[in-house]
Fold:
Amino acid sequence: MRTVTVPSSFPLPPRPVDFSVEPELLTAGGRALQSVGQALPDELPTLHRPSDAASTALSGWRTAAALDRCTGAWTERLKALAVDLDDKGARLVTTAAGYHDTNASVAQGMTELLAADSASRARTSGPAATPYRPAFR
Structure:
Protein backbone atom coordinates (compact mmCIF):
# COMPACT_ATOMS: atom_id res chain seq x y z
CA MET A 1 0.00 0.00 0.00
CA ARG A 2 1.32 3.40 -0.94
CA THR A 3 0.94 6.34 1.43
CA VAL A 4 0.49 9.81 0.02
CA THR A 5 1.39 12.75 2.21
CA VAL A 6 -0.58 15.92 1.61
CA PRO A 7 1.50 19.04 2.26
CA SER A 8 0.15 21.33 4.96
CA SER A 9 -0.12 24.11 2.36
CA PHE A 10 -2.59 22.02 0.32
CA PRO A 11 -5.91 23.94 0.24
CA LEU A 12 -8.70 21.85 1.68
CA PRO A 13 -12.36 22.84 1.40
CA PRO A 14 -13.75 24.42 4.57
CA ARG A 15 -16.50 21.79 4.71
CA PRO A 16 -17.39 18.60 2.87
CA VAL A 17 -18.22 19.28 -0.76
CA ASP A 18 -21.77 18.47 -1.79
CA PHE A 19 -21.88 16.64 -5.10
CA SER A 20 -24.91 15.53 -7.03
CA VAL A 21 -25.60 14.48 -10.59
CA GLU A 22 -28.80 14.85 -12.54
CA PRO A 23 -28.59 12.45 -15.50
CA GLU A 24 -31.39 14.25 -17.33
CA LEU A 25 -29.38 17.49 -17.32
CA LEU A 26 -26.25 15.68 -18.51
CA THR A 27 -28.24 14.08 -21.31
CA ALA A 28 -29.81 17.39 -22.34
CA GLY A 29 -26.44 19.15 -22.28
CA GLY A 30 -24.79 16.37 -24.25
CA ARG A 31 -27.51 16.40 -26.89
CA ALA A 32 -27.25 20.19 -27.17
CA LEU A 33 -23.48 19.90 -27.77
CA GLN A 34 -24.07 17.20 -30.37
CA SER A 35 -26.70 19.34 -32.10
CA VAL A 36 -24.35 22.32 -32.36
CA GLY A 37 -21.44 20.12 -33.44
CA GLN A 38 -23.50 18.51 -36.18
CA ALA A 39 -25.03 21.79 -37.40
CA LEU A 40 -21.85 23.87 -37.44
CA PRO A 41 -20.34 22.50 -40.69
CA ASP A 42 -23.55 23.37 -42.58
CA GLU A 43 -23.31 26.95 -41.31
CA LEU A 44 -19.75 27.57 -42.53
CA PRO A 45 -20.78 29.01 -45.93
CA THR A 46 -23.03 31.53 -44.17
CA LEU A 47 -20.25 32.49 -41.77
CA HIS A 48 -17.83 33.05 -44.67
CA ARG A 49 -20.01 35.28 -46.83
CA PRO A 50 -18.53 38.56 -45.53
CA SER A 51 -14.92 37.42 -45.87
CA ASP A 52 -15.61 35.86 -49.29
CA ALA A 53 -17.17 39.13 -50.46
CA ALA A 54 -14.20 41.11 -49.15
CA SER A 55 -11.76 38.72 -50.80
CA THR A 56 -13.57 39.11 -54.14
CA ALA A 57 -13.62 42.90 -53.78
CA LEU A 58 -9.88 42.87 -53.03
CA SER A 59 -9.00 40.62 -55.95
CA GLY A 60 -5.42 41.18 -57.02
CA TRP A 61 -4.36 42.65 -53.71
CA ARG A 62 -2.12 40.75 -51.30
CA THR A 63 -4.80 41.35 -48.66
CA ALA A 64 -7.18 39.08 -50.60
CA ALA A 65 -4.74 36.16 -50.48
CA ALA A 66 -4.12 36.74 -46.75
CA LEU A 67 -7.85 36.89 -46.13
CA ASP A 68 -8.34 33.62 -48.06
CA ARG A 69 -5.66 31.93 -45.92
CA CYS A 70 -7.24 33.30 -42.76
CA THR A 71 -10.69 32.08 -43.83
CA GLY A 72 -9.27 28.65 -44.64
CA ALA A 73 -7.59 28.39 -41.24
CA TRP A 74 -10.76 29.57 -39.52
CA THR A 75 -12.76 26.94 -41.44
CA GLU A 76 -10.43 24.16 -40.31
CA ARG A 77 -10.63 25.33 -36.68
CA LEU A 78 -14.43 25.43 -36.81
CA LYS A 79 -14.57 21.96 -38.36
CA ALA A 80 -12.33 20.65 -35.55
CA LEU A 81 -14.54 22.41 -32.98
CA ALA A 82 -17.64 20.79 -34.50
CA VAL A 83 -16.08 17.32 -34.22
CA ASP A 84 -15.00 18.03 -30.64
CA LEU A 85 -18.45 19.31 -29.62
CA ASP A 86 -20.13 16.25 -31.12
CA ASP A 87 -17.66 13.93 -29.38
CA LYS A 88 -17.95 15.63 -25.98
CA GLY A 89 -21.73 15.64 -26.28
CA ALA A 90 -21.78 11.91 -27.00
CA ARG A 91 -19.55 11.32 -23.97
CA LEU A 92 -21.91 13.31 -21.72
CA VAL A 93 -24.88 11.29 -22.98
CA THR A 94 -22.97 8.06 -22.30
CA THR A 95 -22.00 9.26 -18.83
CA ALA A 96 -25.61 10.16 -18.04
CA ALA A 97 -26.74 6.71 -19.18
CA GLY A 98 -24.12 5.17 -16.88
CA TYR A 99 -25.41 7.14 -13.89
CA HIS A 100 -28.98 6.19 -14.76
CA ASP A 101 -28.18 2.49 -15.23
CA THR A 102 -26.15 2.34 -12.01
CA ASN A 103 -28.91 4.01 -10.05
CA ALA A 104 -31.51 1.67 -11.53
CA SER A 105 -29.33 -1.33 -10.65
CA VAL A 106 -28.85 -0.12 -7.07
CA ALA A 107 -32.58 0.61 -6.74
CA GLN A 108 -33.41 -2.89 -8.02
CA GLY A 109 -30.91 -4.49 -5.65
CA MET A 110 -32.18 -2.49 -2.67
CA THR A 111 -35.79 -3.29 -3.56
CA GLU A 112 -34.98 -7.00 -3.72
CA LEU A 113 -33.07 -6.78 -0.44
CA LEU A 114 -35.94 -4.95 1.26
CA ALA A 115 -38.46 -7.42 -0.17
CA ALA A 116 -36.42 -10.31 1.26
CA ASP A 117 -36.23 -8.45 4.59
CA SER A 118 -40.00 -7.84 4.55
CA ALA A 119 -40.64 -11.49 3.84
CA SER A 120 -38.33 -12.45 6.68
CA ARG A 121 -40.02 -9.99 9.05
CA ALA A 122 -43.45 -11.24 7.99
CA ARG A 123 -42.41 -14.71 9.06
CA THR A 124 -41.34 -13.31 12.42
CA SER A 125 -44.26 -10.79 12.71
CA GLY A 126 -42.04 -7.66 12.43
CA PRO A 127 -43.03 -4.46 10.59
CA ALA A 128 -42.61 -4.44 6.81
CA ALA A 129 -39.79 -2.40 5.25
CA THR A 130 -40.61 0.57 3.03
CA PRO A 131 -39.56 0.36 -0.64
CA TYR A 132 -36.27 1.98 -1.65
CA ARG A 133 -36.65 5.34 -3.43
CA PRO A 134 -33.66 6.34 -5.58
CA ALA A 135 -32.15 9.78 -5.01
CA PHE A 136 -32.49 10.63 -8.69
CA ARG A 137 -34.41 9.15 -11.61
